[in-house]
Amino acid sequence: MGIATLNETRFDKLLGIDVGYSLSRPTTGIAWCVDGNLGCARTHSDWDRRQRHIPESTTFSIIAIDGPLMPPNAPDGLDRSCERLFIRGAFHARCKPGLSHHGQGLALRKATAAVAVQVRHLAAAPMIGKSVIPGAAIIEAFPNAFLGVLLEDERFAMSKAPKRKKFDWLYDHAIESRVFDRLVRAIGWNNETLLQKVTTERDHEKRAAWICLLTAATAVAGKSEAVGDEAGGWIWLPPAELWAEWARQALARNRAAISASTATAKSGTSQTIG
């Protein structure tokens, strides 16, 4: 019993936030684990209403936010390497992100930065590497990729996800294939209440918030695969050993392709200067 209690303590004081920036509709999802209590809520984008759904007087070990999270001094036009790795190859049709340096993606980036400012005072000092917010344990979640890399290749051949409902398609297939069971076992969070809440959730924003919470839990367990760099930040994903083979191969191919492209560009620049 003592060991189980110790394991549960690792996952206490976690917060997950799905960024919604509609000014009129409740499109923000918030999920938390505090003192062993799990909760999830849907609310609006303003801090007055968001904070009502966050447990009071809590310093969170890790806060995971669904949105492009970058160093405070990063320029708006920065083309992020973590996004480039997931928009090509097999990821493109399965769980690609939107590019966040222009258009709607840039608006989401700014909304994510605003959320980070809102909750920074609630975050503990980072006990993990690769934190882009100075002095705060706040990380980036990307629910589509978090779920997508865990689904086997044949899942994507079974049916095609509706364009605007990709996340819920991924979530439903994750439930069917017992992805969540494998994940919580892998990170050591043996919590039946958590599994019940996650696998029975039907609300889109709350579902995204639960994935953000699981992203934070994976990080606090020291099991995350963080993809990115210091300039543009990192996307925090499930343990590499749980990834489907297609996802591992796709990431390796994309890294090689981008590396080769970068080397070619540098060579061309050097020849031009010479």
Describe the model:
Helices cover 46% and strands 14% of the residues. By secondary structure, it is of the alpha/beta class. The chain has a seven-stranded mixed β-sheet, with helices on both faces.
How would you summarize what this structure contains?
With about 270 residues, the chain is of the alpha/beta class. About 45% of the residues lie in helices and about 15% in strands. It has one domain (about 1-274).
Secondary structure: elements and pairs:
Layout: H1 2-10, E1 14-18, E2 28-34, E3 37-43, H2 47-50, E4 62-66, H3 81-85, H4 90-94, H5 103-119, E5 138-141, H6 143-148, H7 153-158, H8 166-176, H9 179-187, H10 192-200, H11 204-220, E6 225-229, E7 233-237, H12 245-273
Parallel strand pairs: 1-4, 4-5, 5-7
Antiparallel strand pairs: 1-2, 2-3, 6-7
